[in-house]
Amino acid sequence: MNKEKKTQLKGLTLSELEEFFVSIEQPKFRAQQVFNWMYNHVSFDFSDMQNISKELRNILAGSCSLKALNLVGVQDSSSTGTKKYLFETHDGRKIESVLIPDEERNTLCISTQVGCPLDCKFCATGLMGYKRNLSVGEVVDQYLLVAKDVGKDKITNIVYMGMGEPLINYDTTLKSIEIFTHELTKGLSRTRITVSTAGIPHKIKELMESKFRVKLAFSLHSPFEEIRSRIMPINQKYSLQENLAALKIYALKTRTRITFEYTMLKDVNDRDADVKELSKLCSRLPCKINIIPFNSIKHMSPGGISAELEPTPHYAIHQFAEKLRNNNITVMIRETQGDDIAAACGQLAIKF
Ligand code: SAH
Questions:
Q1: Predicted TM-score of the model (pTM)
Q2: Dihedral over Cα of 337, 338, 339, 342: its sign
Q3: Å from CA of 51 to ligand 1 middle
Q4: Residue nearest to atom 12 of ligand 1 (CA)
């Protein structure tokens, strides 16, 4: 049987694995065993599965696959310890994940799409265009292949902030969260998982109604509809007002604070008028602001408005943050990590 025809087990949830084993006339409990091997013991090989008979292991090895991605490169940032992982899919696409060490945690930033359809003007991934959604196996394997490299216990947090828009690939995102947080996976609690979105109100509501009430980050970038529409075209379809209404309900129902991501762009969103409007906006719901210095996308040679974007200078970022703090808003400034290996926010892009 050729490789393409094999049944992909990586990415199946427990109930889907149960269905699979029932369909090949095996007892349901096999599903728990394989689930535990794949996602808890980080196994990529049926020969590890010693609690399954050799005969069945051979059958499974001949007809099923346990690997959705190939790790093809790792780059280390000497200055910060950030590591960028490059993966290849079965159809020859490349995607990236980034492991970001911090004092007491290690956060893995994962991708949900090959490229991104949203075309945000400040983001390198947007500039590379959109190819396709990732499968659940491809999302989960980013975590498992990094876990194999550094040790599963070393990954303490997952953020859906790599390439793509997780709420467009919603079902996949949700199933991957189900796997990451499953008790058999001995993985992560939902409070250590953050989904970042550019804003799709009905999907935010759907996520709220699911049992996976993960943390939500919202790419705000401007408190003004018109400016936001210019730098994030998706705002023309789903307005800031609609998003804020959905985010407010999400925050109140899940008892979490929304993180507003705010990439500082000189003269675009760093003016006093922005401080004033942002402060008003933040008084409407439980939230905090995460300021991200704008990482250059010049390596993509962009045209149009993207070519004109400049970072707000460092001192001005701090002044901006101080003004917001004076209005009782929680503000963090994310130190840029990994820009020496193009692994910082919005720099993930692969030339096809
Ligand atoms: N599509 C999702 C997740 C991916 S982006 C979203 O929009 O939230 C992760 C974060 O990095 C977003 O807040 C994004 O706006 C920000 N970002 C993108 N490009 C950037 C750049 N060049 N410099 C700094 N931050 C950037």
A1: 0.95
A2: negative
A3: 44
A4: 219
